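Re: beginner question about structure tokens

> Can someone show what the tokenized structure looks like for a real chain? I only ever see the sequence side.

Sure, here's an example I had lying around. Input first:
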Amino acid sequence: MTRIKPTILGEPVPLTRSPPPPRLWRARPPDAENRLKGIFPLVVGAALAAVAVRPAAQVAVQTFRTSVQYVAVDVVVTDHNDKPIENLGIDDFEIVEGGKPQKIADFQFVSIPAISRNIAVNVAHEPEPDVASNIAPSPTSRLFAIVVDDLHLIEQDTLKIKRTLTDLVNAFSPDDEVAMVFVSHSNLGINFTRNTSVIMARIDKIKEALGFGLDALAAGPAKEDQSTGPRAGLGSPALRAGDVPPPPPSKFRLTYARSAVLTLSTVAKSLAGSSHSRRAVFFVTGGTTIDPFTSDFSDPLSLDFRTLQDDYLKVFDDAKKADVPIYVIDPRGNVSPADAVRGDAGQSFRTRSQVVENIRIQHNNMATIAVQTGGRAIFNATDMTRMMTEIVQDNGSYYLLGYYPDPFVADGKFHDLKVRVKREGARVRARAGYEAPSATRPSAPVSASVTAAIGAGVNVAGLPLRAFAEPIASDGKNTTIAVTVEVTYPAPVDGSTRIEDNVELRLLALDPDAQQKASSTRTHHFTAPVPGAGTASFLINEVITLPAQPLTLRIAVGSQSLGKAGTVQLVVDLPRASKGLALGGIAIGFDGPTRQPTMLPDAFNGLIPFQPTTSRIFRNADTLRLFGHVYWKDKSAKPTVTMTLTGPNGTNRSAPSLISQNPVGNQEDAVIAALLPLNNLAPGRYHLALEASLPGGKPLTRDVLFEVR
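And the corresponding structure tokens:
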């Protein structure tokens, strides 16, 4: 038997839909799109169009001129052994657009050394920042999404899957931002984070996602194992040795295959708005046994398989436009027929040939996805640890090229480009093109750019933003969230000393299944002087009431004059509760007058006695104000609150003021207030922890990280 190479790499080839046979009958294709609504919590798509927009008074706004379109291209160059070539210069590259060579204006080689870490799951790590930002990351920060295809992985491979995912995450840099998506378990997904111990904790419990996938005979778990599962009664029972495989459950296989492919499409599009110079998807799958590009439609049921062709072509197109390669990983390693199916069906001579053929189809599908998107396919590998290091290294040694298209055509269309390397034997994977802006900026309101930006799955850096959102008041069922957003404007290119604009702030709260739980939209007219530094910044305050449940808050700000929008996302940290005690968030501000222009300065009246700041870098001359709430149910008890500051000066503990308030619902309420002078603190990073506890109860903690300069 001819052995397939462990990795597949090649030039994308044109793929078109196979010509259909005469259509005598066709079942309605399964609505796989609906299965995806909870896959990636941050992708909301067209549903955003329903969010209400309050129009602002129409006033003249300033027009900012923009320079000629600049195109950045990330390029991976490897030799015939898939090893990065790292000694190329600018003269070794050629960019061709529309058949015309382009002048390369910028050139940089980025090298992020491959590492191998052992990330512990149960070790305490530094708290997550309480302020979110979309400021462009450094070149060493990459954006990775791991997609686990739990519909085509089986439970007997749990250990192999855990090892493969662990090796992959251990190879990431501490600066990398990583998310994890499950095709059919949205509740297990993890948002983008640099805290890889969170990812490792999910990998450690990967078994929760397995048990319902199809094996290489398209068989699901035994029926008795599905009686209480989310797919009770679906699939075929596991086969035993000597069993004859049943007819292919076409619709069932198609639903699973389409769900996996459409998830890839959704994730690829979600990464498009990122400002990271390198981003990629790692697709961990056993693969579907359907050949979507077959021309054999002799089985009437297989007519439905043609819909999968469209899904594949859509993935290729979406990944191409988003500049996102897809690396396809078969965690089974060097898989044998006996290992690819449940039970001992693979041992049977009567089924072995079918399993071998299905494995071939699975691997061909993996290779097709990888080649067509500029990634690599890893299967039949004997050393998965080495292969995981290689594909991360593949994304850690690349070239950044930049050019100004000549001629530049602002037609709103996708423009193909080709990168060539003047080195014999070099393999090149690069951005396939870019979407040019329209020649005329549409006269649509600012809400159009906000809608487009907030629908992305990652932070969009059209406008630099920093955002703070903390629970300030709670009645146990609903929580009042105070939101402060800092917006930074570039200096006007025409030398104007004032900025005048219509600005829209939109808030969108989503649960883990991407269901909208609350929204808010407000448009402001903004006028401010441009300081000597050349940029102008201002604050926007807003209040939103959310149900007491885990939520992700998407925050978008759009500028009418710039025609741009920026977004940030953060997990709403609800009041932490334990046995009758709940601790709200901590608001931080400067002691003294507000230091920045603020829209809706009175929004927090009665909630916070000062203007919160989004800055977490302070000076010795600053004095900070802290404010929060603590709630408890036992009227005869009173919580103890301790403030601990750890940093270059060592550890200092103090007790902030605790001021009783009127009861809220069936719970007692007290305000936590403190002043924190920084004049005696040495420069460096500090960790502020606010801890509350009841007698005999478990303490609750809020953390804030900041820096003194």
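Each token stands for a local structural state, so reading them left to right follows the chain. The chain has three domains: 31-59+442-572, 113-121+138-395, 575-709.
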